[in-house]
């Protein structure tokens, strides 16, 4: 009899503790998640086959560049990057680096405008215009609502500026991913009216932005939807949006038009797809746990060391990829920009910019 009561008491206690823990977890959790169900699996075959080509990069500015996320090039051939310690730095043709402008914060994407100004995306601030003389905040809000997570920017030849706002809710990627509600937007800044408008919203972490060479469409990447969209800004399809590429083997970050003017380089940031991770993405309770204790994410292989960039044709067909499958030399590669005979690789892990020569990637 005693034994039965004891077991019963223990069971009640255990269940009680679990319920209390669960309620506390929900109360502590910063997110209110939706399930993220990824339909297709992908294989590392054909264009996605492992090759470790990125292990052959030359390291530019090693030790001087704090996680250079994106790159840009000006009409003189100077290579610009924004570092996470608040600098815009640039590399001269003789290979020397210059600490060009301190903008503060943690700048991300940048581009050089036709007027020679550097446009820089600043999380928590908006869009900056930087030149030798001054730093100017071009856009910080839309109808009074702040732009929370400016991430990547391109400029069209008419001066219109297209940029992404990754999430109107979160300043941290992993929280946006775990919540899996699409808070990302594609924005347009008009240099004449000086107004910013929303072209697209409801994007799953809006990230890389590229403009076609005819400037008739924009490609915008959605990191945790593992796809990029094509949004028409000219012609018959003006205003419509279609899928450009989906089921990418990693979350797309920056996208840049390739030197041929037709294909695109997409950097897939870290490893955020795997069987384990995709299992976690499905279940709210697991997502609450990882959102509350983010250190556990590393433990299940989130952002594991590895790097991958994919070259995609104008119809969204994957052509080839370059990777460092165990992150020996490069990991968390966030951008790939082809200039002349080189591919420049930005990374949120490195203290250098990677540079790969054409003989390694043009086959
Ligand atoms: C490289 O070029 C820059 C700009 O022209 C110049 O300021 C710098 O002194 C040069 N550095 C070297 C090592 O030649």
Secondary structure layout:
Blueprint: H1 2-28, E1 58-60, E2 71-73, E3 79-82, E4 87-91, E5 97-102, E6 110-112, E7 118-122, E8 126-130, E9 135-139, E10 141-142, E11 145-146, E12 150-155, E13 161-165, H2 173-179, E14 184-190, E15 195-203, E16 206-211, E17 217-222, E18 227-232, E19 241-245, E20 251-257, E21 264-269, H3 275-282, H4 284-292, H5 295-299, E22 307-312, E23 318-324, E24 333-339, E25 342-347, E26 353-357, H6 358-361
Antiparallel strand pairs: 1-26, 2-3, 3-4, 4-5, 6-7, 7-8, 8-9, 10-11, 12-13, 13-14, 14-15, 16-17, 17-18, 18-19, 20-21, 21-22, 22-23, 24-25, 25-26
Helix pairs in contact: 2-4
The structure holds 2-acetamido-2-deoxy-beta-D-glucopyranose.
Describe this structure in words.
The protein is of the alpha+beta class. The protein has two domains: 1-30; 31-361, TolB, C-terminal domain (Neuraminidase). It has helices at residues 2-28, 173-179, 275-282, 284-292, 295-299, 358-361, and strands at 58-60, 71-73, 79-82, 87-91, 97-102, 110-112, 118-122, 126-130, 135-139, 141-142, 145-146, 150-155, 161-165, 184-190, 195-203, 206-211, 217-222, 227-232, 241-245, 251-257, 264-269, 307-312, 318-324, 333-339, 342-347, 353-357. The strands form seven sheets. It has a four-stranded antiparallel beta sheet with strand order 1-26-25-24. Strands 2-3-4-5 form a four-stranded antiparallel beta sheet, with no helix packed on it. Strands 6-7-8-9 form a four-stranded antiparallel beta sheet, with no helix packed on it. Strand 18 and strand 19 form a beta hairpin. 2-acetamido-2-deoxy-beta-D-glucopyranose is lined by residues 92, 94, 96. This is Strictosidine synthase conserved region domain-containing protein. InterPro entries: 6-blade_b-propeller_TolB-like (IPR011042), Strictosidine_synth_cons-reg (IPR018119).
